[in-house]
Amino acid sequence: MTSEVEDHDPVPDPVPGTGVDSSATGVLLDAVEDSGSSEGYQRGLGGRQIQMIAIGGAIGTGLFLGAGKSIHKAGPSIILAYLVAGAVIYLIMRALGELLMYRPVSGSFSEYARELLGPYWGFVTGWTYWLFWVVTGITEVTAAATYVNYWWNVAPWISALVFTIALYGINLVSVKLFGELEFWFSMVKVTAIVGMILIGIGVLTLGFSQAGDTASVGNLYQHGGIFPKGIGGTLMTLQIVMFSFLAVELVGVTAGEAANPAKALPRAIKTVPWRIALFYIGSLIVILSVVSWTAFEPGTSPFVEAFRKIGLPAGAGIVNFVVLTAALSSCNSGMYSTGRMLRDLALNGQGPRLFTRLSKAGLPFLGTTVSAALMMVGVWINYEWPSKAFDYVVSFATISGMWAWIMILFSQLRYRAKADRGELPRSEFRMPGAPWTGIAALAFIFLVIVLMGFDKDARVSLYAAPIWAALLTVAYFVVKARTPHVFAKQR
């Protein structure tokens, strides 16, 4: 681990016609297969690591912990909520894939918003996505602290502190170590979910375990029907469901460090449908068939509770370890992405110059350090409100994360229009059904935001979002007034 850093000029001349810097951001206009360095980073993420990062992004705290609250609110209809939301997520990822194959850079959707929608939108998107991962990091260490209490009665703030420091250290070594850690984190999650599904099928078909007499597919509709809380109850779970999918877009941030983005990124995005079908739809169908939805309570993992009901305490302990892994995996991803987002903003003159520096290992040392320090707020939240910490931060993480999705979809709509007019090169990985599929996905996201206003816990984020937007707008005009030449280059 090293703290030695090197300066990089944040504002060189842009590539003609794109408004994007060629030397500092490593734009791959001629061939996305370029295996050289990008934006000063090392292309150290291989295809298998990209695949598992993409898979791991779809399996996190929202599924393992948040699903308990969703099941309590909606009953078996939560499966339909995940199915519809999953279809929208696939459209978002296809939109991102089209942009990535046009120009794979580490700044990803922030870069695309800056180029295609204007510097203001790039500024807002970059800083909001950075905040999203800081808040998500707080969410994940909060969840991790909850899981530790399954075995030991440790104060949540102590666990949160230890995890934050450990993951910070890992992210200062090398991008290869980050990728390898994420590979194994994801492998654990995948193996565990497949194992849970197989055990559940065994209980349903062979009738073994304490739940064998009551386990039945009939549990999906016999206890108040598929919609026991009404359609309204199902709709009110959509913000929790969408939170479950946050981080699937992380694969876009890895573009600048992928060894072969032209092959690895489309392959990872194409796996989104079966990942959702297996990990979300499949696992929830099995769990809610083995154990009635009425047995689950908010704040507990439905996977852990399912094993308890089955009568396999050792299995519940294993699952608790897996969900702990999932939380740490997401926090690890947060450490990775925040430093790169801060550096992308700095490279474009929209953030402090010092964040352009890289360590000798090619890592954004200062950006990662500042972000990790802010994640320590999670330690304080766990100290002050240990029982409410997860609910306090999840809704704000959802609204800030969905902003990235909104910008991806708007950027893709603008890009496709320009590409069809011949103003930009066409991507070889095009979003199906565009522009109508993009418009439908945007409508769904806006519906979720409206529904959040009817939830007293989620409503807090809708109060905070305008304040954050106002602060960013003021900051943007201040920065623009101080460095007008930077924004002139980006038009």
From TrEMBL:
One Pfam family, short name: AA_permease
Membrane-crossing segments per the record: 52-71, 77-96, 117-135, 155-178, 190-211, 276-296, 316-336, 363-383, 389-413, 434-454, 460-479
Recorded topology in the membrane: Multi-pass membrane protein
Annotated stretches, region: Disordered: 1-22
Record keywords: Amino-acid transport, Cell membrane, Membrane, Transmembrane, Transmembrane helix, Transport
PROSITE patterns the UniProt entry points to: AMINO_ACID_PERMEASE_1 (PS00218)
Subcellular location: Cell membrane
Protein name: Amino acid permease
Top-level taxon of the source organism: Bacteria
Record-stated family: Belongs to the amino acid-polyamine-organocation (APC) superfamily. Amino acid transporter (AAT) (TC 2.A.3.1) family.
Boundaries of every Amino acid permease/ SLC12A domain copy: 50-480
